[in-house]
Amino acid sequence: MGLKRPREETMGENKAEKREKPDQATSPFMPMFENFRKELDEHHDRRERIIKASRDITASSKKIIFTLQRVRKLGQPMPQFVVKGNAQYWETIEKQYQSISADVQGLNAFRYGSNITGGNQEFMEALSFQHYLENQTLVSYEEAKSKIASMSGAGGAVLLTPEDYILGIFDMVGELMRFSITTMATNGKLPAGEPKTAGTSNRDSHEDKMDVDQQPPVTVSDGEPRNVLSDLRALRLQLEMFEPSGGRFESDVRKKADVMRECVDKVEKALYGLMVRGTERPKGWVPGLREEKRAEVESH
């Protein structure tokens, strides 16, 4: 009769076999899922870099706009204090575009488009505002694309979509409104370009018009410069004829178009208060932005 093996010995062998089984079986899907994990990690890291760069571009663009609002003359080179003050912000924007240029090439330009759109729109607002103050014309889409491409570095050009360009132009109208009202309060007149001589007014009339696709008739007498309000009205006319294609872009255009109309209306009302009742107002009075406040400052 054979000897019975102790229970403890049998249990020990079974445990050893169980421990060895996971080492012996290797799943063929593990390398595939490890690649998936690696791709997801890269995607999230890339997305975070783009979001951070977009926020920094937005912040620097806002600071550029704040400095530009200190300008008081139209159609002239930027004053030295503006060039000096904004140099660091332009450099920051350039560094941020260079840091993400390689991340937004090819299909990634559209994959991460919603993450960079905020920075692109704010950049367009600052760029178009400065361009208008210097030249009294609207920066073109090709010029704006070329500007971003020149700031993108060796990684490739960061894409500026037509949607971001248009939405940035809508936002720029608000800055022109603030510039107009502040200048009227400071100088007592609506900002306008330099007056032209009678001999050059007819020759330059086409070049002096705001750079939009189709120009509406502008009733300005010979030798009289074009002012901000006439440009705002011309821009409003062109933007109101624009029909967005649908989706989120259409919703954004509708909202910004309402704000644009309000901005032009505020400049018109401010000019009305300045011209019609200007003699009744004390020096340094800021033109009212709402119709119900036109009768204020009587106590002065």
Automatic annotation (TrEMBL):
UniProt xrefs under Gene3D superfamilies: Translin, domain 1, Translin, domain 2
* Cross-referenced Pfam families: Translin
Reply yes or no: does the keyword Nuclease apply.
no
What GO cellular-component annotations does this UniProt entry give? cytoplasm; nucleus
Disordered: annotated span: 1-29, 187-225
Note the InterPro entries from the entry: Translin_C, Translin_fam, Translin_N, Translin_sf
**UniProt keyword Transcription, yes or no:** no
Tell me where in or outside the cell this protein is found: Cytoplasm; Nucleus
- Start-end of Basic and acidic residues biased regions: 1-23, 203-212
Q: Which UniProt keywords apply?
A: Cytoplasm, Nucleus
Q: Which GO terms describe its molecular function?
A: sequence-specific DNA binding
Q: Which family does it belong to?
A: Belongs to the translin family.
Q: Provide the protein name.
A: Translin
What organism does this protein naturally occur in? Periconia digitata
Organism ancestry = Eukaryota, Fungi, Dikarya, Ascomycota, Pezizomycotina
